[in-house]
Please model this.
Amino acid sequence: MIRLQNVTKDYGGRPALVNVNLHIALGEFAFLVGPSGAGKSTLMRLLYREETPTSGSVFVGGVNLNRLHKRQVPLLRRRLGTIFQDYKLLPRQTVFNNVAYILRALGVDEKEVEKRVQSALSVVSLEHKVDAYPDELSGGEQQRVGIARAIVNGPPVLLADEPTGNLDPATSLEIVQLLERIAERGTTVFISTHDTTIVNALRRRVIYLKGGEIVSDVDSGVYELEPNLNV
Amino acid sequence: MRQLRIFFRVIIETGIGVRRSGWSNWLVISILAIALTIFGCILQVTMTMKNVVTAWGSQLEISAYLKDGFQPKRVAREISQIPEVQLVEIVTKDVAWDEMKSTFKVASLANPLPNTLHIRAGNADAVEAVAAKVKLLSAVENVRYPLKIARKINELTHFIEIAGFAITAALSAATLTVIGNTIHLLIESRQREIEILSLMGVSPFYIKGPFVLQGAAYGAGSATVAILVLAVMHYYLDPYIIDQLVSLAPFLPRNIEYEMWQTFGILIGLGVLVGAGGSAWTSGRYIKI
Model:
């Protein structure tokens, strides 16, 4: 589902990713871990085509993103559910409208919008908050709205860039467990994080990035500060 | 159906954008309305001046004096075939002589006057060309016409056209700047929202469309205000201005008319075009998707 081949990304000669090779299969659940500045966000941005690699190829759902025309980028992003650390909710829209926005922009019939939004909100247990505005919600609730928005269009891939970065440990665990439940339905979930608690609690595939290179890739792994090289 | 729903949503988003813009809507519409009213006034004055000059020019007369032995009616028919010629009037030598004798005391002698044709061209621009063509006819002895006046009128007409075009261009540029800056401010204030929409995979049409429509709405609104002002001016001020003009220059025709609907159409068209164009340019420049 996600494949990176010899991907290097540098910013004005400063390398952010160095010769990265990675494959994540359909329906897989994986963590991308590493210290700040390891290149996690850069790798995520490559996947939703916010950036392009300096060299190498990035494939998502079989599509080579290097060859993707600018006009096709929105089509790619609709097939990806993206979750952000700062939630990126529309502050002047209600919970319902935040989740419904993309469906309406795609011209989905209003009855269908209503049905899909309710369904997405029920997955994240926020059916009772449809009329609330983002600033009336807790951090955990805001992130759950972000997740509902990401899954409302039924994407095959869910990318989460530091989704628990602004949350307390208990809420963080709730959020990743929610993402795990979504993955059980067949969605590929790829989470970048430096939160050891959530990674170690779930014991799923862990890809360790350091200095822009993958130094460890372990199934059922934990987040170790100095991992054994096991790529 | 899906496309129709998307377009309908874009219109709704435009409405939301206009509502959020609050007082700045009135500021933009006021500035644009002032610019379009000035433009409308200049357009009216230019069109009126052109009409005056054309009417004045059409009064210019070419006198063609015929050689003896040629039938004035036949020559008049020939001249009236020239495309620019509007009117040919025959003054036979007998009529001219009778008129002269009734005006002046003249000695009893044989009629020395030639048959004469008075020719009017459609406009001052054509006078010189028509005179040259008439002069080439074998029946014509001599041709006289007010050359200097014809040239001055032509110069004045061209000056009015160029000045009108220059002022229109300057005001359009000013209007574009005002709309562009306003839409730029709107884009800046909604930058985060635009970023979110882009990351969600919302199409550029859906993101930029409301800004373009908002600019078009500003243009249409401002043009409507300008039209109302101009209509009031047309109703109350024009009769007074025409009275003053005619009293200053009695040779001017009283029926100096211009087409108000044409001005209104131009104002609406220009307002919408400049509004939408300015917004489209600004959106293209500042919205990075």
Observations:
- Chain A touches chain B at residues 48, 50, 70-71, 73-80, 82, 84, 88-90, 92, 101-102, 104-109, 149 (CB under 8 Å).
- The CA atoms of residues 9 and 53 of chain A lie 5 Å apart.
- Helices of chain A lie at 40-47, 73-78, 95-105, 110-123, 139-151, 169-183, 196-202.
- The first helix of chain A runs from residue 40 to 47.
